[in-house]
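Recap quiz, item 2
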Amino acid sequence: DAMVIQNPRYQVTQFGKPVTLSCSQTLNHNVMYWYQQKSSQAPKLLFHYYDKDFNNEADTPDNFQSRRPNTSFCFLDIRSPGLGDAAMYLCATSSRDRRSLGNEQFFGPGTRLTVL
Amino acid sequence: AQSVAQPEDQVNVAEGNPLTVKCTYSVSGNPYLFWYVQYPNRGLQFLLKYITGDNLVKGSYGFEAEFNKSQTSFHLKKPSALVSDSALYFCAVRDDNAGNNRKLIWGLGTSLAVNP
């Protein structure tokens, strides 16, 4: 089945130790998103890629970076995690073209990040 | 300003009874509206969307939603609730600002508890 995969599902890191979360998709969607979600709150968009075009949200801290080496993969790098970065990180994809203005986003299962 | 409101933090309903989870929106143009469900420690799952056409939209797991333009509402409904429907529900609308229409504006979520 076509899907969005996130690895690992659970990640524990130490304060200040860089960590990378990964996302892959078999949907061949051209848009990929990274969200941060804290304790049953609404997901907060960090950035998204439209093909190779990177779009950062204005309030996303510089501590968060992303890479998309190809259509299928996208990475979230947290350069120096703080205690406040402990959260669920959700990857999503969407197909976006002129004919599909209302396409929904498909989410992966998420990676729960713990910062010690 | 564009926004989505879910006026109820929590909804409690008895199994077998009809359920309604409320959502109202504010956008400048035609609304593209979505409902997602999130089970504990999982990613978001798409339930249904309204783009255009019939005001009553049917989706996954027996859910439906009614688009009401005059009341700017998009309430989620199900005729007979199941205990397994207990989850967090998010309403979202496509961001209508120029250049932003790959993004969604999210409600704060409503926790649905279905009691046996």
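Chain B has a mean pLDDT of 93.
The longest strand of chain B covers residues 87-94.
End of item.
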